[in-house]
Amino acid sequence: MILNVNAAEKAVRAAERRGLDIPATVREAAAVDAAVNAAMRAPDPERPPVPATAADVAATVQQYALDLQAADLTRRAAGRFNEDARLLYAQAVFDAVPAWIGGLQKEFATLTAALAKAAAKLPDELDPARIPWNNPAVTAPYQRAEGIAVQLDQLVADRADIVAAAGGDGGRDNALFAVATLPEPTADAVLDRQWPRLAQVVSGWRELRHQHVARWVYLARQPDLTLGLATPGEVRQRAGAVEAWRNATHAAAAALSRAGAAEQVRRVLAA
Q: Using an 8 Å Cβ cutoff, are 64 and 45 in contact?
């Protein structure tokens, strides 16, 4: 596991923006890191005034030299603690990430439910060039959906900042699987050739990458998708389910009989 301090700092800022609880462990680790950082950058002690008599100069200079040396040694010593303090902070943030993602779920569910209601009042085709903008029955829910889409984008962006502290998502179509999941493949579903329909759900989402509102509405309308924010590592799991669907479907197609297909599918899904 590689801990990223900069990502941890962004994650905390995102959590604060969202009003999420910052654990005491994170706050204490941040305080430790700040204290070490302050010690590393402590200024030199203020120079004393020139003594009034020549007899006092040597002692004054000597004491000031000791003070400067102590300050320099303190900064150098603090530097020896810097990496450990930074990693302590990053680890505390890493540990907090799952709870923060969980804390975003309620807002995400509320927004997507509102989006589904607006989507029910919109036409199937949401190309801005084809929307009848003079029809309030369409423009009103569209504007509502547009406002929700903006809020969802902001929420998903904050989720991305938070998850980055745990290594990020990775994988193809991670923007989709960060917010939605397909059903897990089963042998019966594969043999019933359900994958082509599910594959079309994914490809349809990709085709809308330049249509901001339509893409969110599309997700809200898909009965095969379950909307929910992914926790760290879950995006890869969701993407892995897609690969399992694809591989099992290919295995079934290559078999010479349904019994052989069933056996091959079970073998792929068990791998």
A: yes
Tokens of 158: 């904050």
Which pTM value belongs to this model?
0.86
Q: What is the C-alpha to C-alpha distance for residues 3 and 94, in angstroms, rounded to an integer? A: 8
- Whether residue 214 is predicted with pLDDT greater than 70 in this model: the reply is yes
Which among 85, 125, 106, 119 is positioned nearest to 219, based on CA atoms? 119
- 165 vs 160: CA distance, rounded Å: 9
Residue 118 vs residues 127, 141, 227, 256: alpha-carbon distances, Å: 16, 5, 16, 48
**Strands 226-227 and 180-181, sheet pairing:** antiparallel
Cβ 57 vs Cβ 51: under 8 Å: yes
Position 246 pLDDT exceeds 60: yes
Mean pLDDT for all residues in the chain: 93
Rounded CA gap, 212 and 145, in Å?
A: 10
The set of residues, in sequence order, having a beta carbon less than 8 Å from that of 255 and lying 6+ positions away, is 261, 263, 264
The position carrying tokens 């897990």 is: 184
3-state SS class at 62: helix
Coil, strand or helix: which one is 227?
strand
DSSP 3: -
The gap from C-alpha 121 to its chain's centroid, in whole angstroms, comes to 31
Mean pLDDT of 50-65: 95
- The residue whose two tokens read 């990223």 is 4
